[in-house]
């Protein structure tokens, strides 16, 4: 898998994990609450995951939505903070 394909795979995982929490990253970006630099840092953390296949399976099982990300998610704190901020708005 090329570097770009791998990056794209993890960018998709980040998006799906956010969606599972009810966070629309495109909306967050358009509202200025999430910058392209933050997106890159978030995907970079995800790239450090040693088992993206497990994450894909977890996301498939939890399509209906979740209250929190799995403990192994490298973006757990960030995504859950975004969710909490949206919930309190």
Description of the molecule:
There is one protein chain. The protein has one domain. The model has no long low-confidence stretch (mean pLDDT 93). Helices cover 66% and strands 0% of the residues. It is built from 5 helices and no strands. 19% of the residues are buried. It is mainly α and 89 residues long.
Give the helix/strand layout:
Elements: H1 3-20, H2 25-30, H3 36-47, H4 52-61, H5 76-88
What's the SSE pattern? HHHHH
Mean pLDDT: 93
Annotation, overall tally of beta strands: 0
Straight-line N-to-C gap: 41 Å
Please state roughly what percent of the residues sit in beta strands, choosing from under 5%, 5-15%, 15-25%, 25-35%, 35-45% or over 45%: under 5%
Large-scale geometry: globular
Oligomer: single chain
Number of domains: 1
Largest sheet: none
The class by helix and strand makeup works out as: mainly alpha
* Count of alpha/pi helices: 5
CA-based gyration radius? 12 Å
Instruction: Give the low-confidence spans.
Output: none
- Helical content band: 55-70%
Notable traits:
89 residues; mainly alpha
Summed up:
The protein has helices at 3-20, 25-30, 36-47, 52-61, 76-88. The chain is mainly α.
């Amino acid at each position: 898998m090329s570097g770009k394909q791998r990056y794209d795979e993890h960018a998709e995982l980040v998006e799906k994990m956010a969606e599972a929490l009810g966070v629309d990253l495109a909306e967050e970006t358009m509202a200025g609450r999430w910058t392209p630099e933050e997106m890159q840092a978030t995907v970079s953390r995800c790239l450090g995951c040693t088992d993206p296949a497990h994450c894909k399976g977890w996301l498939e099982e939890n399509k209906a939505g979740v209250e929190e990300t799995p403990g192994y998610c490298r973006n757990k704190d960030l995504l859950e903070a975004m969710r909490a901020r949206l919930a309190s708005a």
